From TrEMBL:
Protein name listed in UniProt: Ig-like domain-containing protein
Domain Ig-like residue range list: 98-190
A molecular-function term among this protein's GO annotations: transmembrane signaling receptor activity
Top-level lineage group: Eukaryota
Keyword annotations: Disulfide bond, Signal
GO biological process terms, semicolon-separated: cell surface receptor signaling pathway; immune response
The organism's taxonomic lineage, starting at the top: Eukaryota, Metazoa, Chordata, Craniata, Vertebrata
Species for this entry: Oreochromis aureus (Israeli tilapia)
């Protein structure tokens, strides 16, 4: 019973995660820093037909929409040629109210930027940071810093952090000698989700369509279970009464037999009396 309840709960949680349809904001090229006049594409990725709008907060404007005073919008996507005034926080917002993840974009007026993940990275993944200049090749020697402290110097201008953990979360920047220093960007590390423990004899469907089918089965069981329980109860009650009636039938004939014996005795007495007379 407990095993069935656990599976039903897992089905419901998975189904809810499939039908929530929260948009995910993606950035292309995938970076949190850009040079002036770089073309950046923002997109709200979502499997549903819900309408999503791209909005942003900058130092001068709040909750402005793509296509109004910045960018060129097409559906749930937006292209923008960036300038320093475009630095800020961007997100997707639906008409119903929910919003997506937020990303912080920085447009540098300098000659060096740090190309780092714009979205959170998962624990255990490898992350590569690239220190690049606007006009020269991106394989120049560079120094990388975390929270103001030097991590290491790389002769090729890129550094890979293997199997990142929560301790790697922080503020990163880089420096190329003779060219300058990049702005700082925050790298977020998220915990790896814990896999649910499921009995070996059971498995969850791999996609949402299967989950929806399973949910319907569970729903039917929930709806019809009271009917089956009440039916079983009535049948048990009927059987109990049937056994009681049968027991009464088996016991009640003993009384007529007793009556017949008395009648037989009376007849015998009469016969005996008449013979004596």
């Amino acid at each position: 019973m407990e095993e069935t309840s656990l599976l039903c709960l897992l089905f419901l949680i998975s189904l809810l995660s499939c039908i929530t349809n929260q948009a995910r904001l993606t950035v292309s090229p995938s970076s949190s820093q850009f040079f002036i006049r770089d073309v950046v594409s923002l997109s709200c990725e979502d499997d549903s037909s819900a309408g999503w709008t791209l909005r942003r907060n900058t130092s001068k404007q709040q909750r402005t929409q793509c296509g109004d005073v910045w960018g060129r919008g097409s559906g749930s996507s937006c292209n923008i040629t960036v300038f320093p005034s475009d630095s800020g926080v961007y997100w997707c917002e639906s008409r119903e109210g929910p919003i997506s993840n937020m990303v912080n974009l920085t447009v540098s007026g300098g000659s060096v930027i740090l190309q780092s993940p714009v979205l959170p990275v998962m624990e255990g993944d490898d992350v590569t940071l690239l220190c690049k200049t606007k006009t020269t090749p991106s394989n120049l020697p560079a120094a990388f810093y975390k929270d103001g402290s030097l991590i290491r110097k790389q002769p090729t201008g890129h550094m890979t952090i293997q199997h990142v953990s929560r301790s790697d979360e922080g503020l990163y920047k880089c420096d190329i000698s003779g060219h300058g220093e990049s702005p700082s960007s925050w790298i977020t590390v998220t915990e790896k989700p814990i896999a649910a423990v499921i009995p070996a004899t059971s498995s969850l469907p791999p996609d949402c369509s299967s989950l929806q089918l399973a949910f319907r089965v569970v729903l039917h069981l929930v709806v019809f279970s009271p009917y089956f329980i009440s039916t079983h109860f009535m049948m048990s009650l009927y059987r109990h009464r049937a056994k009681g009636n049968k027991l009464c039938i088996l016991i009640s004939p003993t009384h007529p037999e007793h009556g017949l014996d008395d009648e037989h005795d009376d007849v015998t007495a009469d016969v005996t009396t008449e013979h004596h007379f």
